[in-house]
Amino acid sequence: MAIIIDGKEVAKEKREQIKKRVAELKAEGKSVGLAVIIVGENPASRVYVNNKKKGCLEVGIESFEYALPESTTEEELKTLVKKLNNDDRVNGILCQLPLPKHINEDAVINTISPEKDVDAFHPQNVGHIMIGDYTFLPCTPAGIMEMLKFYNISVSGKKCVVIGRSNIVGKPMAMLLLKENGTVEICHSRTENLKEETLSADILVAAVGKTRFVTEDMVKQGAVVIDVGMNRDEDGKLCGDVDFNNVEKKASYITPVPGGVGPMTITMLLENTVRAVEK
Ligand code: NAP
Predict the structure, then answer these.
(1) pLDDT band at 242, cuts 50/70/90?
(2) Is 52 annotated as catalytic?
(3) Which helix (H) or strand (E) holds 93?
């Protein structure tokens, strides 16, 4: 049976450290603020935004919410972002994705000042991640690295297989594992013989977005299995990309869903907001 990686526990400890740093910054007279923009009425986005605001409150970061109607134009959104770029109370800006179809997400992200881009989505920050010299961490992958560190799971020299090549998870995940000297492979929907690849993994990260996609026969005995997926199963229950009940029997460590990667993502967003001020 695998050791269950408790993301809530790791997040709690990390948030305590962040809270102390926020208090120190405030004692120096500095403000620590995060602006969160949400456009339209996507229920999942609303949950994420509420959790982000709750996280801010927990560590003493001031949060400013901008809830805009679905009909907001790209120009209006960019005008708000530019205003926030020049607002001294705001150290970090995040625009909750996805945006309505008529708005070009890249154009909006590129408008956020790289110094306030706490999601680390701006091409300038993505470039920094690529060369391994960065202030802002890619939140989900960085949260995973924190969990590995917390459980003393060494990456150096290990075969790491990441399923998924999105800009938000898969690609930056591969970069962080590489920085820690993992031997990294990225798989995606065109990968041939996926099972052959995943079976070679000492550390397997699933970021696919498909319920119970990773089955027991795809996992090497003793592998560390990290489940990034946030899906709804046939009963509407939150579940990951990994067939947890069966894979748990084979893995050495495994993250559950919920309670694994999720709590760490917001924690790293808070970390980035503090970094924006410290920088
Ligand atoms: P995404 O942009 O849809 O990317 C999914 C990736 O999976 C793509 O690279 C895709 O390959 C690959 N894929 C799809 N079907 C596949 C198959 N049959 N075999 C191999 N690879 C396949 O998703 P994402 O934004 O990275 O998110 C992935 C999951 O993580 C989602 O469930 C999302 O909700 C969750 N998530 C969770 C957190 C968190 O905090 N816990 C944060 C972000 C995302 P192609 O590129 O070839 O299409």
Answers:
(1) very high
(2) yes
(3) strand 92-95
